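step: validate -> pass
step: tokenize input -> pass
step: predict -> running
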Amino acid sequence: MATLLSSPRLSAAVYGCLTYGIGISSFDAVLPLFVNRTFGWDSQGVGLIFLAFTVPALAGAAFGAMSDRYGPKRVSLSGFVIASISLALLALVRDNSIVAKAGLAVLLFTLGTGMNLILTPLAANMLYEANIVEEHNPDVFGDAGAYALAYSFLCAAFGLGTSVGPAWSGFMFEDINWAAAMVSLVAFCLVGGVGVFFYTGGAEAGKRVRFDDHA
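step: predict -> pass
step: emit ->
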């Protein structure tokens, strides 16, 4: 375990997945309350506005293809940029107006797009890096390699993120306001983006992996 986590590239991917978990789950806690208090929407309205946030996940295969073509660094970093800008603009949605409602829907869509651009490349990059670490440490892992262990880091990061996200955003929303909750999530994204910028591999990363080596 320590051998894998000693890799800056894999650690950056783990933190990126943690950021994804925090960002995705935070809205489960605060978005229903925000639209109810600001727009007076009931559960039906809440359910419909969540569609704007979740629909981009349907393009996951396209995001994966982009990562394979252009490399996980470019795609995931663009996801962090899109997510950060969307979150910053969401902080400006405050009044009960048609413009605010339309803006909320559009920004949730772009935020969902950014979040999904983050996850897919970083998940793949964890497996790329696990293969490289294994090549340099052939006696540490078993015959099947380190792929399952790397995937467990992904699951753990996502699980921790979905635990921290609602608690953190709920605290910021109730004790301060909606804008503070959004700005705090921008901070998480910016830190995650820095790690991706410095440590995540480019288009050549996946070319070094040959999964049939362990068949």
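step: describe -> Residues 209-215 have pLDDT under 50 and may be disordered.
step: cleanup -> pass
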